[in-house]
Amino acid sequence: MGAQLRVYKRRIRSVTATKKITKAMEMIAASRVVKAQRKVAASTPYATELTRAVTAVGTGSNTKHPLTTQAETVVRSAVLLLTSDRGLAGAFNSNAIKAAEQLTARLEAEGKQVDTYIVGRRGLAHYNFRERKVAESWSGFTDEPTYADAKKVAGPLIEAIEKDTADGGVDELHIVFTEFVSMMTQTALDDRLLPLSLDEVAKTETSAAAAAGAPKGEILPLYDFEPSAEDVLDALLPRYVESRVYNALLQSAASKHAATRRAMKSATDNAGELIETLSRLANAARQAEITQEISEIVGGSAALADATAGSDR
Q1: Nearest to 147 by CA among 238, 58, 245
Q2: How far apart are CA 297 and CA 70, in angstroms?
Q3: How far apart are CA 284 and CA 289, in angstroms?
Q4: What CA–CA distance (Å, rounded) separates 313 from 310?
Q5: 288-to-1, 152, 238, 282, 291 alpha-carbon distances in Å
Q6: Half-sphere exposure for 214 (CA within 13 Å, toward CB)
Q7: At what angle do helices 121-129 and 92-109 cross, to 10 degrees?
Q8: Residue 247: closest CA among 126, 165, 145, 169
């Protein structure tokens, strides 16, 4: 076997082994994304209803609370960035990091200080490599986050929002995560968790009151709360933050698995195409060797025939 043919054979074996690995990773990611998608679907109604409960308390009372009241002057903001612990997911992590950097730049342009919190080794590595300060980070659970993980992440954020800015607290909380839209579409976006924007809720309540026959321009009545609206908001604050963080973690996990599945399928397809190309080159090299051997045999046979004919003379 010629040297060139050996090279092709070796490369075909190497690419074939790689293809088996990427195919296995594709199948694993496909199974995980289905499970993650179910968890997202299960957690979303709770997070949505809890948000509605908080907004109902906020619109139904005049209580000032970090959940619902915007500071007159926002001094410091917290940004929670959700990435993954591992790569091999295409542009999943880079898109989330890019969205966080754009959000940070926008907040700093408004004159706000930004404290960055990061989930996932990929995001932390990005910030550490560029020597950027990180308030706190977590890792080790991005593939299959649990509610306990969400509580662990939400704890420092709740403490920061409850503190005064003079004591290291923050006035608002933003989260950057990748929303799972479909198996083919995942979108990195940023959302402000705290304080809640109640404008849309107030419009909805006004529309509902009008639909119920309330006169136009009439002031909507306030609710009565037991023991008080402030106590209700104090009780809902950790639940709200935890549920939203948990849902975002699940959305990011599902998006990461979908991105990994897509990336591994592309790698598997590329490996298959490369194997076909190398096989054609190997066949061409084999044919060239066979042709050369036949030519050498024919040439040798002709030379031997000529030598035999010369000796007969």
Answers
A1: 245
A2: 91
A3: 9
A4: 5
A5: 11, 66, 73, 10, 5
A6: 13
A7: 50
A8: 145
Q: In what order do the strands lie in the sheet with 76-82?
A: 136-138, 113-119, 76-82, 172-180, 186-194
Among candidates 161, 65, 68, 73, which has minimal Cα distance to 112? Answer: 73
| 225, containing H or E segment | none
C-alpha dihedral, 226 to 229 to 235 to 237, nearest 10°: 160
pLDDT digits (tens, 9 = 90+) for 140-150: 999 999 999 99
- Window from 15-24, 148-157, 289-298 with minimum mean pLDDT: 289-298
Whether pLDDT at 191 is above 60: yes
Q: What is the pLDDT of residues 20-37, one digit of tens each?
A: 999 998 899 888 888 888
Whole-angstrom Cα distance, residue 202 to residue 217? 13
Determine contact, residues 108/88, Cβ cutoff 8 Å.
Answer: no
Average pLDDT along the chain: 83
Spatial separation of the C-alpha atoms in residues 265 and 24, rounded to whole Å: 10
Half-sphere exposure at residue 70, Cβ-oriented, CA atoms within 13 angstroms: 8
* Segment 248-273, tens digit of pLDDT: 999 999 999 999 998 899 899 999 99
Note the maximum CA span of the chain.
Answer: 129
Helices marked H in the chain: 3-59, 92-109, 121-129, 147-162, 199-211, 229-312
Residue 88's pLDDT is: 86
| pLDDT of the residue at 217 | 46
State the Cα–Cα distance between residues 144 and 238, nearest whole angstrom: 22
Q: What is the mean pLDDT of residues 71-85?
A: 89
DSSP 183: S
The values of phi and psi at residue 205, to 5°, are: -65, -40
Cα-atom radius of gyration of the chain, to the nearest Å? 32
Q: What is the pLDDT of residue 240?
A: 87
